[in-house]
Amino acid sequence: MDQTLPAGHPKPSNRKLGVDREISTIPRPNMEGSNSEHDPRYQDPKSGNWIYPSEEMFFNAMKRKDWDPKAEDMRTIVPIHNAVNERAWKEIKEWEAGRGSEKCGGPKLVSFSGDSQKLTPKARFMVLLGYQAPFDRHDWTVDRCGKKVDYVIDFYSGKPDPRRPEALSFYLDVRPKLSPEGVWMRMQRW
């Protein structure tokens, strides 16, 4: 797998960061394009699934976003990132169940983007009611046999477990985006 960084990308700090990548359970449609989501380096040639970034790639992505990552934290952060995305995908598959994608091999993740500064309408409303804001937001586009369906994911810090105070806890609010299709899907769940 090519791990070469294009010119201008920051190099990691003195700690040797891992370059191994994990194959996700999240299927990816075969697509052509120029952005990173369509880059074949992000798709496993055998399974067709998305491939998660290595510690080094994750570190460099955080640097590009002007965050201040610590190399020694990547060994912990990357597996958490991957596990949280797997959980989000599991919830999306629950939303997609019985909606027709079974005939073409199930839903596939077309693209994703994150914007921790942009609150969803629901998150904004919950903040007005006094609840904590999510620490991140993702927008995912899913292919349902050629039909694109948009989802939004709000990521919250969960309640700590008193039996395991050192364990991290997350709550994900995964739902279809407010669109005609998304509203219809939400109404059917009530």
From TrEMBL:
<protein>
    <recommendedName>
        <fullName>Holocytochrome c-type synthase</fullName>
        <ecNumber>4.4.1.17</ecNumber>
    </recommendedName>
</protein>
<dbReference type="Pfam" id="PF01265">
    <property type="entry name" value="Cyto_heme_lyase"/>
</dbReference>
<comment type="function">
    <text>Lyase that catalyzes the covalent linking of the heme group to the cytochrome C apoprotein to produce the mature functional cytochrome.</text>
</comment>
<feature type="region of interest" description="Disordered">
    <location>
        <begin position="1"/>
        <end position="47"/>
    </location>
</feature>
<keyword id="KW-0496">Mitochondrion</keyword>
<keyword id="KW-0408">Iron</keyword>
<keyword id="KW-0456">Lyase</keyword>
<comment type="similarity">
    <text>Belongs to the cytochrome c-type heme lyase family.</text>
</comment>
<feature type="compositionally biased region" description="Basic and acidic residues">
    <location>
        <begin position="35"/>
        <end position="44"/>
    </location>
</feature>
<dbReference type="GO" id="GO:0046872">
    <property type="term" value="F:metal ion binding"/>
</dbReference>
<keyword id="KW-0472">Membrane</keyword>
<dbReference type="GO" id="GO:0004408">
    <property type="term" value="F:holocytochrome-c synthase activity"/>
</dbReference>
<keyword id="KW-0479">Metal-binding</keyword>
<dbReference type="InterPro" id="IPR000511">
    <property type="entry name" value="Holocyt_c/c1_synthase"/>
</dbReference>
<keyword id="KW-0349">Heme</keyword>
<dbReference type="GO" id="GO:0005743">
    <property type="term" value="C:mitochondrial inner membrane"/>
</dbReference>
<keyword id="KW-0999">Mitochondrion inner membrane</keyword>
